[in-house]
Amino acid sequence: MNKAPLRIGVLGSGKGSNFEAIVRAIRSGNLNAAITLVLSDNPNARILEAARSLGIPSNALPASSFRTKLEPEIETLAANQLADSGAELIVLAGYMRLIKAPLLNRFPNRIVNIHPSLLPAFPGLDAWKQALEANAPTTGCTVHWVDSGMDTGQIIAQASVPVLQNDTPETLHARIQKAEYQLYPEALSKIAAAR
Ligand code: GAR
Question: Which of 36, 101, 147, 151 has the smallest number of Cβ neighbours within 10 A?
Answer without folding.
Answer: 101
